[in-house]
Design goal:
289 residues, mainly alpha, 65% helix
Length: 289
């Protein structure tokens, strides 16, 4: 049913079903529509939180499918999430969501109207693309976003938590199969979960927690982009037997495996623990700051 692609980080390169992220997109859309009809989350001023979230996730999945189909260039993928930010901007204005962001050391920054038309689109664009860029290993593009989403949900009110409870359970099931190398979620999954995280953080007003949680993602993307733009070189790991190793430091993965052979699972666990550490910092900051 799903197209099969070779697992490049296995010696025998087995063919693995790809694109199962569409299951998450379809399930989440139906789940959120049911949430709307059952009145799980508030709706007012003609704007529905579940439907807005569903639209954003649908667009993320569509963008991923488009990328799988057409192999979009990064200059197009970078800005496409801005379209998905439009319903979020409308919802934020109608609900008069807080326009200030509280950051440790820096303090509170109130962006005013610029929050709606500048900060929200930038958040969506950065989060969606950075989540998509940290992948390529079994479990990496599913486990790490799940950790961030769990952290955000832990800080959310019950109504918002229920919005993502079902989708999170399904995503964790996909992550388990992905970690075992049984499936790939593909770009449809990585873009959709990135859009989920960004949209949910805006709706639940957890912007500060999101910014702290995605620091490893931003660091990874910065390394990749600097290597490409300044040196014209891409990050890559080499398969040495059953272990991965790199001879350069052009991404978070190659930094971890630089002259240090590690199995694929060891790398994924290391990155996941790093993400979990920043999520823990974000949660503690939100609770104590």
């Amino acid at each position: 049913m799903f197209p099969r692609v070779p697992d490049q980080h296995k010696i025998d390169k087995p063919l693995v079903p790809n694109g199962l992220g569409v299951i998450y997109v379809l399930f989440t859309t139906v789940y959120l529509f049911l949430g709307y009809f059952l009145g799980i989350a508030e709706s007012g001023n003609g704007v529905s939180v579940p439907l807005t979230l569903a639209v954003c996730i649908l667009f993320g999945g569509f963008m991923g499918l488009l990328d799988d189909w057409m192999d979009l260039k990064w200059r197009y993928k970078a800005f496409m999430p801005l379209i998905a930010a439009l319903p979020l901007v409308y919802l934020a204005r109608e609900y008069a969501l807080r326009t200030a962001i509280s950051l440790p050391i820096i303090g509170i920054i109130d962006f005013g109207e610029a929050y709606y038309f500048l900060v929200i689109p930038l958040l969506v664009m950065v989060v969606t693309n950075t989540v998509n860029m940290l992948g390529g290993l079994n479990g990496l593009e599913t486990i790490c976003p799940a950790i961030i989403l769990i952290g955000l949900m832990a800080l959310s009110p019950l109504s918002h938590l229920l919005l993502m409870l079902g989708p999170l359970i399904l995503w964790l099931a996909l992550a388990a199969f992905n970690f075992k190398g049984k499936i790939f979620v593909g770009n449809s999954g990585s873009f959709a979960i990135g859009m989920t995280i960004a949209s949910y953080a805006v709706i639940a007003d957890l912007k500060s927690s999101l910014l702290i949680s995605i620091i490893p993602y931003v660091f990874n993307s910065s390394l990749i982009l600097l290597s490409v733009f300044l040196f014209g070189k891409k990050a890559a790991v080499t398969l040495d037997g059953n272990k991965l190793v790199s001879t350069h430091r052009r991404s978070l993965i190659t930094l971890i495996t630089y002259q240090r052979p590690m199995t694929e699972r060891q790398v994924v666990i290391a990155v996941s623990l790093l993400i979990a550490a920043f999520v823990a910092i974000a949660v503690l900051t939100e609770l104590l700051w």
